[in-house]
Design a protein that fits this description.
heterodimer; A: 476 residues; alpha+beta; 8-stranded antiparallel β-sheet; 6-stranded antiparallel β-sheet; 15 helices; B: 180 residues; mainly alpha; 6 helices; 88% helix
């Protein structure tokens, strides 16, 4: 009898549990995934013939399929995916086709990473003019987001592209360069994969050289003058980055800078040319982990960064090695939280007024978990239709830790929109590859040629063969 | 309690608990925030167990092994029904504390029964044999569960394990009735 009662109670609880689980907890997650996943992923391999590549577009045309293009897929605004579309994975299409040491050029397939290029050109004593700070990204991806890096002397990444072969929405392979089909050329650079597939690219290179690290620390108000005189004004300075404090003790006040200058004695270059591999992941990972937790963690992360920076002052390093920043320590694995990036551009002469206002926005939102702000320089460059460098600007990359639940997303969106408003009020702009927090209106102000961009899309891909969520979000 | 029956019973509960333990991590991954929280979840389990052993030990001799095993079986059967519903880290912590208590009940009873039924002279062989069968059951359970999670959801294994625990609970109670 006792057993029967017990069994009955058990069956009731069992039923209730299953009911609650099925009705309440099991649903939203699945829906979310189904919405975002493409139906099929097509791998493009390095040995594929032109015809095989064209066939992907022809087939999509015949079947009425929509294509999206993927490299490393680190863009956070859905630039590489489209619901129920066909995703073309370009990563295996990664051969370095030719290194011409005389002309100092390299031709690569678009799935190659910047690391692949560095490995191919380093033995020739050659170096990229401009690349993304982290070298894990594909060439096609970086060009499609019009990336920039540490170099302060060679303009934007678009200036270093001599030409490219391009598979357009009709399935034709055409040559693009500043002199050939240049309208499409400048739409594709920073075109977020909406015009077709970049097949291979020829880059202008420069010589690798030995650089000497020079570090300094200062307050943010001294920084623009320091940069203009000591960095930009010094022809030996080649690459530069800075960080502004996110630690409570010195929030948005303290900065440290790292400048790489041509070393006096270049004869030692050979002994520094071996490409470095990522080392000491554990140490930065530990400090970054601390800074995610609380303010004390942020203070210790900032202090550790400062000490480290002082230590590297005077170090010699090859240009190629400067262009291989560590990124592995930023890998972050968490089901409930995620890390997002934001990047704002503000004219050099506005920086001093901009920082206090940005600080105010951040202080108004104490829960906003800002982990790092890296500052770099971008020279005015309006090649790309969607160009962010309307004048000589500082770029601020913000690393933010946020929850993935609806409330946290909303909270982050509010802060991001506020920060962008402040940025726009200082004649700034923001970077497009990140999560779709900004409003359409903000995009139009930051990118005056937004309308032209979408018109070009209509002209070159009227059937919308190439699509992604970024387009969905920001189309007029 | 018949010693053979006891091995049979231990085989079943061993099966059910090893079903959930390795895969339990998957659930914490869905719910938890970080490796630190894994640490806490398992630490709480061990800590509560430690606090409970002295009390359980005292009661074991008074209320008898069978009652304690029944509490364990039914406790686990019901507790597991709450696992699929856990959606916050603190839910997992609470469940881990309760698991710690029940785990301590099981561990203590297992050893007291062995101590009471094993013949001292051949204790090695007997306990060895005992471990063979309970381990075989555990191994089968883990492998089979792997497939189960592949086909069903992680939640389903908690329900299946719960049913097995309920079955073991019935066995324990039956034993008692027969004896009476």
């Amino acid at each position: 009898m006792k057993t029967a009662w017990l069994a009955l109670v058990y069956v009731i609880i069992f039923g209730l549990s299953v009911y609650v689980y099925v009705t309440q907890l099991n649903r939203p997650d699945n829906d979310l995934h189904q919405r975002l996943l493409p139906v099929e992923i097509k791998k493009v391999t390095s040995g594929m013939t032109d015809y095989a590549l064209q066939k992907i577009v022809y087939d999509a045309k015949n079947n009425g399929d929509v294509l999206s293009i993927a490299g490393m897929q680190h863009s956070q605004g859905g630039q590489t995916v489209y619901p129920n579309g066909l995703m073309i994975d370009m990563k295996p299409y990664n051969q370095v086709l030719e290194v011409n040491s005389q002309a100092k050029t390299v031709t690569v397939q678009s799935g190659a990473t910047w690391a692949d290029i560095q490995e191919a050109i380093n033995p020739y004593g050659l170096s990229l003019k401009v690349s993304q700070s982290q070298n894990i990204f594909t060439v096609g991806g970086s060009l499609s987001v019009n990336a920039h890096g540490l170099d302060i002397r060679h303009g934007g990444i678009t200036d270093t592209v001599l030409s490219m072969r391009f598979l357009n929405a009709d399935g034709d392979i055409i040559q693009l360069s500043a002199s050939e089909n240049n309208e499409l050329f400048y739409a594709v650079l920073g075109g977020y994969g909406l015009f077709g597939i970049i097949l291979d690219v020829t880059f202008q290179l420069t010589d690798d050289e030995l650089l000497e690290t020079e570090t300094a620390s200062m307050s943010y108000s001294e920084y623009p003058a320091y940069f203009t005189k000591q960095v930009k004004g010094n022809p030996h300075a080649k690459m530069h980055l800075a960080r502004i404090s996110i630690a409570p003790d010195s929030f948005m006040e303290d900065m440290y800078t790292i400048t790489y200058k041509s070393a006096h004695d270049q004869s030692e270059l050979a002994s520094y040319q071996k490409l470095k591999t990522e080392n000491l992941v554990a140490v930065p990972k530990f400090f970054l982990g601390l800074s995610r937790i609380n303010d004390a963690g942020k203070d210790s992360f900032w202090n550790a960064q400062k000490v480290y920076t002082q230590q590297i002052n005077g170090n010699l390093v090859s240009r190629n090695n400067v262009m291989r920043s560590d990124s592995e320590f930023m890998e972050y694995d968490n089901s409930r939280k995620t890390e997002i990036l934001q990047e704002y551009f503000v004219p050099v002469d506005q920086f001093e007024h901009y920082i206090p206002e940005l600080k105010k926005v951040l202080e108004d939102h104490p829960d906003f978990n800002l982990l790092n702000v890296t500052i770099r320089y971008v020279e005015q460059n309006e090649n790309a239709v969607l160009s962010y460098a309307k004048e000589d600007m500082f770029s601020l990359v913000l690393l933010i830790n946020q929850g993935t639940d609806e409330k946290s997303v909303q909270a982050t969106q509010d802060v991001v929109r506020e920060m962008i408003d402040v940025t726009l009020a200082h004649d700034g702009s923001y970077y497009l590859p990140y999560f779709g927090y900004p409003t359409k209106k903000q995009m139009q102000i930051a990118y005056p040629k937004t309308e032209e961009f979408f018109e070009l899309k209509e002209r070159f891909d009227p059937e919308h063969r190439f699509m992604n969520l970024f387009y969905e979000e920001y189309q007029p | 309690m018949n010693y053979k029956r006891f091995i049979y019973y231990q085989g079943i509960v061993g099966m059910a608990s090893s079903m959930i333990f390795p895969f339990y991590i998957l659930l914490i991954r869905n719910v938890g925030d970080s490796y630190a929280q894994f640490g806490w979840a398992y630490g709480l389990f061990a800590l509560t167990a430690a606090l409970c052993y002295p009390i359980i030990g005292k009661y074991a001799d008074r209320v008898g092994d069978k009652s304690l095993l029944a509490i364990y079986s039914w406790g686990m059967a019901i507790l597991l029904l709450f696992f699929p519903l856990a959606s916050e880290v603190w839910h997992v912590y609470v469940l881990q504390v309760l698991m710690g208590i029940l785990g301590a009940v099981q561990k203590n009873s297992e050893k007291t029964i062995l101590a009471r039924y094993v013949t001292k002279e051949i204790a090695g062989a007997q306990i060895g044999r005992y471990h063979v069968w309970t381990s075989v059951a555990a191994a089968i359970a883990v492998i089979a569960t792997g497939y189960l999670v592949d086909f069903l959801t992680i939640a389903s294994i908690f329900y299946v394990a719960s049913l097995i625990f309920a079955g073991s609970g019935i066995i324990v109670l039956k034993l008692q009735t027969i004896k009476q």
